[in-house]
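Need C-alpha cells for this chain, all 177 residues.
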Amino acid sequence: MPPTDSISFPCRPSPGKMFLYGLFFCACAAVLAWKAHTNHRGLIINGIVRLGEHGATAFYWVAAVLAALFVVAAGWILFTTLVFGIPDVVLSGESITFPVGFPVKRAFTLPFAEIGAISRQQVNGQRFLMLHAAGKKHCIVLNWLGSKHAAQTLEDELARRLGCAANAHAEPRADGS
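Here are the C-alpha cells for all 177 residues:
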C-alpha cells in the first residue's frame, strides 16, 4: 500500500549566494568591458588561437556581454524568488510535485507511476536529481533544498515511495501471489 503522508522540502536558492554570484559576474563584465574599450593589441589564446587587435577587442566585448547575462540571470532568479516565490518539493502518496519553468517557476506534479528511473548528476558543484519519465527528463536542483541532508532524505524517501508505487501497480501473478 502506498504511503499517504506528504513530506514537503523547501526549495529556494540562497539569496546571499545569488547576490554574490551577481556581484562577481558584474565585476567580470566591468573588467572585460574596460579591457575591450582600452584594447590596442592582439590576443593569443592557449598558444593556438591568434587574434589581431580588432579580433581581441571583439573577444573581450563578447566575454563582457556573456558575463553581464549571468548578472541578469542572477538578478532574475533573486527577483522571482523574492516576488513570486518558488514552490516546494512535495512527496505525496502517489506523486511528486516540484518547481519547473521559466521565466517564473510553477508547481508540476508527476505521478510515481510515470517515473521509470531516478539518477543524480553533478555539474561544477551543482547537484541535480533527474526523474526519467516517458522519454522526458525532469530536473530538481538539489542545491536549492538547503542542505545535503535534505537532498539525501528526498532521494531516499522518493526511492522508497517509488518502490511502493511499483508494488502497488504491479500485476498480480498467475499463481495468485
